[in-house]
Amino acid sequence: MKEIEERGCNAVGIISKSAPRLDAIRSSDGRPFVDILLYNGERINLKNFNAGTEEANKFGVPLLGMYLDYKQSREQYVKSQGGLAPGMSVALNDAEQDGIFEPIVIASRHNPHDPAGADELLPERIRWRVDRAVAWASLRHKSNAQKRVVFTYWSTGAKEGARRMSVAIQTNFLMYPAQWSRSFMQ
Known about the structure:
globular
């Protein structure tokens, strides 16, 4: 939060054991007063996965993840070629299927063999997470003409809404490549 506030942004902290009340980031008229929802953990609501994601999606803001890599020490994480994979791949897959993206590690376990051991913050990763979050927040305030879009072409067993979106993108691209290429050339 300190890093966010040092950038001139407002940070609202919600601390919860397993099921945060997201009403805390709504104004009296029911609209969210945040530009992004940045949270630490594998799921927004550990008591009811779907309810947490559905509630967060109602805000209409990007859902960005940050993680504690509890399977690797700082040194192991920095040396690893896979980052969070393969040790935390399941958590990343669940988050991706829920529509949470840009999972960025912000801390590691000081001693991964000690489940109750201390965690070690990774300041350079926190700065990068905040840089990306601020960029996403500023994007919400730009006109569409100022934005650039990237389409991905692969999809793995996502939930129904994400699967439809991915298939629609793939289908449109595959059905109309000549039309798309002409519009890009103009």
